[in-house]
Amino acid sequence: MTRIMCLGGNIETEIVLQGLIGQQAQIVGVFCADDALKTEISDYADIASIARSRGLPCLPISDINSSEAIDFAAQQNADYLFVLGWSQIIESRMLAQFPKGVIGSHPAPLPFGKGRAPVPWTILRGDRRSAISLFRMTERIDEGALLIRRWFDIGERPYAMDVYDLVTANLKRAFCDLACDLDNGIEPTVKPADLEASIYARRRPEDGWINFDHDAEYIDRLVRAVSPPYPGAYSYLDGTKIRFLRAEPANETDLQYHGVTGQILRKRQTMLLIQCADSPIWLGGNNPNTDRGDSRPICKLGDVFGYRAEDKLQILESRITQLEEQLKALERIKC
Fold it and tell me: What is the pLDDT of residue 295?
């Protein structure tokens, strides 16, 4: 049988690894995320516990290219490394530890959608169809020969976890099918998707900031794109950061309400109707009406989200002027 090592530290890794174990693939070792990476992986999963419960050799790491990781790989004498969910580039020294290859995955129809954060970008683009790709890894990002591609349809107005679940289910089937093919001496190949190459940029938690000067449709997509397992969309109200996990389009009755951008027009349980550039939108999901479980309301009808830059600058200038006057007064006293 084909000797396989696995690498990953997220929910995707957990589900695919469980699938491979379930079909009795010959897993000879596992790399997982160490404690240093727990807070950096938004969809972190405890892969070490799964590996150890199955008696699999396991090494928690923060750097797949470290000498310790390379030594561990050499000890397992594996044919392949399956990369199930890991964002670091794998360098030539590690690639060389696997004589038959390193197999990576990406939730996009390569060569379209290379790069980072493909699930949020898929939602932000409004795509209704996407794919997962398995490929031979090289030192260049998402550049190796394609082995398997699986297309899937995306429902209307999906949240991040909806697309993530579709990706994970298709990756599980693809890796399990690949393991069976390799055991039978077959290495599948597919042609690149008939799409122009594109590269997604990295996304950071602060990219979830809501600018209510955008139209409601874009804000709806943003909130859904960065919803759990990602950090979520947010705005500020009187200096308090408010996170939004859900979005709903306004109905006919809602469209009768108008206000300045960012203004709260209506309230409904944990949802707020907020004015955007073109129309209002319902946002909420984690009870924005209260602060950290406190029952005191912090969002009132008529309140406005966001900062008014000129007002804030005027306040800062006024405070700077007051401080300068106080410093002058202190200097006169010293004299």
Answer: 40
